[in-house]
Amino acid sequence: MTHPTVIEKLAVLADAAKYDASCASSGTTKRSSKGVKGGIGSTEGMGICHSYAPDGRCISLLKILLTNHCIFDCHYCINRKSSNVARARFTPQEVADLTMAFYRRNYIEGLFLSSGIVKSADHTMEQLVETARILRHEHQFRGYIHLKTIPEASPELVHQAGLLADRVSINVELPTDSGLTRLAPDKNARQIEGAMGGMKMAIAQARDEKKRFRHAPTFAPAGQSTQMIVGADGASDADIVGKASRLYDGFRLRRVYYSAFSPIPDASAVLPLKRPPLIREHRLYQSDWLMRFYGYSAQEVVQATDSMGNLPLDIDPKLAWALKFREHFPVDVNRCSREMLLRVPGLGTRAVGQILASRRHRTLRLEDVGKLTVSVAKVRPFIVTCDWRPTLLTDRADLRAMLAPKAEQLELFAA
Ligand code: SF4
Questions:
Q1: What was the pLDDT predicted at 243?
Q2: Which is nearest to 110 in space by CA: 71, 149, 60?
Q3: Which of 94, 139, 146, 401 is found 20 to 30 A from 32 (Cα to Cα)?
Q4: Does ligand 1 have an atom closer than 6 angstroms to the CB of 74?
Q5: How many CB atoms lie within 10 A of CB 123?
Q6: Is the pLDDT score of 53 beyond 60?
Q7: What pLDDT score does 168 carry?
Q8: Which alpha helices (H) appear in 23-167, and where do they start and end?
Q9: In this predicted structure, what is the pLDDT of residue 264?
Q10: Which segments of the protein form a coiled coil according to its record (predicted)?
């Protein structure tokens, strides 16, 4: 039997990694190899390597699995032990060599490394850590490293990952504990949250030490993130938003990534046959932004959902909330608080900043606001300016229909 070449393994393991959306090289510290003898890499450049899901979405930067062998049997995963797929396995040295070769050719900005669980959680975690160690200590690699950690591995090994990586992630996988038990029987929600809690404490402690001692080691400077699969179980958007909010509050996550479940070849019978519409994933990202940057609580986002707890697909959650709570509008852009401006549909954080800066010097007209937004028609019913007052616009029964994109447009995004 001939052994597969590195390129053949790469074809299998890069393809197997494409279902994971939880990587983005954001939020780390600035670092470069300038002045480091024999060092290479920098976290300051733009990423140039992307990965594409089968539906054409650009979901991430470079990413590979150490192996797609796995002793677990998560129903939604193409790499589960009962799946009939081609398998391959890299050594840590091979991954490090590939990363360096690609980096030198300017193909990539760093490494996103995940793995199926081979032999045991500890053994796999050791291999992930060893890869990062070779890169950091043998190649003096200063580029971005994102390591997926394994919650079942020993806390010491997970800690070592944090000392070497910019970002670490631990996937919660599914929004509800019952969904996890049903679809990932080998995983345990308590164990996952325990690992996240340990990571949160280690990150906070390292930051504290760094403030006191300049040479204290950095620990996951880009924080921790997680991923939730959307549409594989019966969880509603309200369940997902509630879970994300608890994760942000409880574990100081940098990001929660939402990944619309993609039907996989040879799928388990317990999975839905159809994928959820991609626009659902987009609406969840919008609701995530509302909580992180627009001052909405999770309960307020949930207020924008329908009777089944799902966000409307035809309009964004901010507009849905404003249409439900019309009594808060219109707001006077020349007087109202930043918090209320952020709630005006069609005004982003940047536009709000510009309005606040401009109104210190002059009184704003509708035309001025129109220059800051893509659609003045969307903003108009919700604001008052010195030359515009919407006469009972927010009372109109057909306001939603007036503001929703036309059905033909929606088809562009529908799955
Ligand atoms: S642990 Fe589960 S999700 Fe991860 S590779 Fe194995 S089967 Fe897939």
A1: 97
A2: 60
A3: 94
A4: yes
A5: 13
A6: no
A7: 94
A8: 92-104, 121-133, 155-164
A9: 76
A10: none
Give the three-state DSSP class for 98. helix
Is ligand 1 within 6 A of the CB of residue 72? yes
| Atom of ligand 1 minimally distant from the CA of 81 | 7
Give the Å distance between the CA of 302 and the centre of ligand 1.
30
Of 133 and 30, the one with more pLDDT: 133
Q: Which two three-digit tokens encode residue 322?
A: 């404003």
Could you give the angle at the alpha carbon of 136 between the alpha carbons of 162 and 154, nearest 5°? Answer: 30
What's the rounded Cα separation, in Å, for the pair 119 and 74?
16
Which DSSP category does 281 fall into?
H
Q: Nearest residue CA, atom 2 of ligand 1?
A: 74
User: Which stretches does DSSP call E strand in 272-377?
Assistant: 331-332
Q: Looking only at Cα atoms, what is the longest distance across the chain?
A: 80
Residue range 69-91, pLDDT digits in tens = 999 999 989 899 998 899 999 99
Burial of 133 (0-12, 13-18, 19+ CB in 10 A): middle
Q: Which helix (H) or strand (E) holds 53?
A: none
- End-to-end CA distance of the chain: give it in Å, rounded: 42
> Among 344, 250, 240, which Cα is nearest to 301's?
240
For every residue of 168-191, DSSP letters joined together read EE---BSSSHHHHHHH-TT--HHH
pLDDT for residue 219 is more than 50: yes
Place of tokens 């958007």: 237
297 exposure class (CB count in 10 Å sphere: 0-12, 13-18, 19+): exposed
Q: How many CB atoms lie within 10 A of CB 386?
A: 14
CA of 148 to the centre of ligand 1 (A): 12
Q: What's the confidence (pLDDT) of residue 17?
A: 77
CATH class of 6-276: alpha beta
Q: How far is CA 183 from CA 178, 380, 400, in A?
A: 9, 46, 38
Burial 63-100 (b: 16+ CB within 10 A, else e): bbbbbbbbebbbbbbbbbeebeeebbbbbbebbbbbbb
Closest ligand 1 atom to the C-alpha of 68? Answer: 5
| Residue range(s) occupied by CATH 3.20.20.70 in the chain | 6-276
C-alpha distances out from residue 43 to 33, 143, 255, Å: 9, 5, 18
- Which is the closest atom of ligand 1 to the Cα of 79? 8
Residue 136 is classified by DSSP as I
Cβ pair 175, 218 in contact under 8 A = no
- Give the residue whose CA is nearest to atom 7 of ligand 1: 80
